[in-house]
Design a protein that fits this description.
Helix content is 45%, strand content 10%. The protein is an alpha/beta fold and 256 residues long. A hairpin with a 5-residue loop joins strand 2 and strand 3.
């Protein structure tokens, strides 16, 4: 790095520099003492004319002076500690801070964090079940999502009811299960037969038809007119996986 030179400047002796600081300190100290003496004299004259007020001011000043007196040693200690912490010893450089150690990957835990819902087991292949197994699977979904008194009643002479249950809100649920292939849709005649018995015979307060297939347009129109809820194969899978609602409302998955 090139040295910067200034022309026409004559260095002053070091002795002059050394004397300047003490003289300046003595001058400042004398000025402060003189000002304090002048204020004291003026205060003494004023106190002689107002003794009561002077006594009150003195009583108020004593706690302030005491606090300042107690705080001075503490302030000096704090300044010394700050200098000791900020200034490295002579001839030594401040040691660099050590790099943080790499964190080990967190171990997997099964504890529930209170934020993520616990999903149910994978949905079964409803089309691969036999008719009795399909009805039992639908009944298991009803029980999982809060229904009480779940009963499988399908079979000969069931009069259109395969699963009976009591919904979480207390309504009587009557479900008919239709395990059809993808090309066999549930038609309006199926809905009409079920609609003729679910309300009057089984006393349904909520009637639903659950199928692995789909519903025809006339069947959906009849169901809407009669208040029957239709759950096709897509809605059934969503219900089983927890991403869709149960026929009576939102799924009630166990989040414990």
């Amino acid at each position: 790095m090139p040295i910067r030179r200034t022309r026409g400047v004559t260095p002053r002796p070091r002795a002059t520099r050394a004397l300047r600081s003490p003289l300046l300190t003595l001058a400042l100290a004398g000025a402060v003492i003189g000002a304090a003496a002048l204020l004291f004299v003026r205060f003494a004259h004023w106190a002689g004319a107002h003794p009561v007020t002077a006594v009150l001011l003195a009583l108020l000043a004593l706690p302030v002076l005491y606090v300042l007196f107690r705080a001075m040693p503490r302030a000096r200690e704090l300044r010394r500690a700050a200098r000791a912490g900020m200034t490295p010893p002579a001839g030594e450089e401040a040691a660099p801070e050590p790099a943080p150690a790499p964190r080990a990957p967190a171990a997997p835990t099964d504890a529930h964090d209170g934020l993520t819902a616990v999903l149910p087991p994978p949905a079964p292949d409803f089309a691969a079940l036999d008719p009795d197994g399909f009805e039992a699977a639908v009944a298991a979904l009803c029980e999982r999502d809060g229904c009480q008194d779940v009963e499988v009643v399908g079979g000969a002479g069931d009069l259109g009811a395969d699963v009976l249950a009591t919904a979480p809100d207390g309504r009587r649920v009557v479900v008919q299960c239709k395990q059809y292939g993808p090309e066999h849709k549930v038609g309006s005649q199926d809905l009409q037969r079920f609609g003729g018995t679910c309300w009057t015979v089984h006393g349904a307060q909520l009637a639903a038809v659950v199928t692995t297939s789909e519903f025809t347009a006339p069947a959906l129109e009849y169901a809407e007119a009669c208040g029957i809820r239709c759950v096709d194969g897509t809605a059934l899978t969503a219900w089983a996986e927890g991403s869709g609602a149960a026929p009576w409302g939102p799924a009630m998955l166990d989040t414990a």
